[in-house]
Amino acid sequence: MNFRKGRAREDLEINLIPFIDVLLVIVIFLMVTTTYSKFTALQITLPTADAEKALEQPFEINVGVDAQGRYAINNQAVAARDSAGLARELQAVAQAAGQAEGSGKPDPVVIINADAMAAHQTVINVLEAARAAGFAKVTFAAQSSSGK
Is 0.70 surpassed by the pTM of this model? Predict the structure, then answer.
């Protein structure tokens, strides 16, 4: 029973306009729900602290290193050029300060004041000397760049 005699069959077509509408809705949904996070390595906001100053200042040993590789401990020139000699000098300074102020002081803090043009090995010698002398607290001094 063919009721459509004489009529030619129409080819089926996909209507693209509703298809494009659906795709645009999906794209808008993905854009709204996606979170974009920006990772940068240089823009850092450091935390602030409103702590009171420490009542007792730790004992500090300042080690200076100049561009020629000479050392100074607490503004006194040192003849030692290797880490073993520096370790002996650091221990001597710590013992002298311990006898003068009593033995109640905790471990000293070794502050390394190295020239910007100092050789890397000279700074490593100070670090090795501090380790050999038994000082666990070591820090580096730097100046702020706002003074330029």
Answer: no
Strand ranges for 23-148 from DSSP E: 60-65, 71-73, 76-78, 109-114, 137-140
Give Cβ neighbours of residue 128 (< 8 Å, ≥ 6 apart): 83, 86, 87
pLDDT, tens digit (0-9, with 9 covering 90-100), for 62-79: 898 888 888 989 888 888
User: What DSSP character marks residue 42?
Assistant: S
Torsion angles phi and psi, residue 8, rounded to 5: -85, 145
**What gap in Å lies between CA 62 and CA 47, rounded to an integer?**
27
Q: Which two tokens stand for residue 18?
A: 């509703």
Beta carbons within 8 Å of 140's beta carbon, 6+ residues apart: 111, 112, 114
Distance CA 87, CA 74 (A): 14
Residue 59, number of CB atoms within 10 A of its CB: 16
**Which among 5, 134, 113, 125 has a CA at the least distance from the CA of 66?**
113
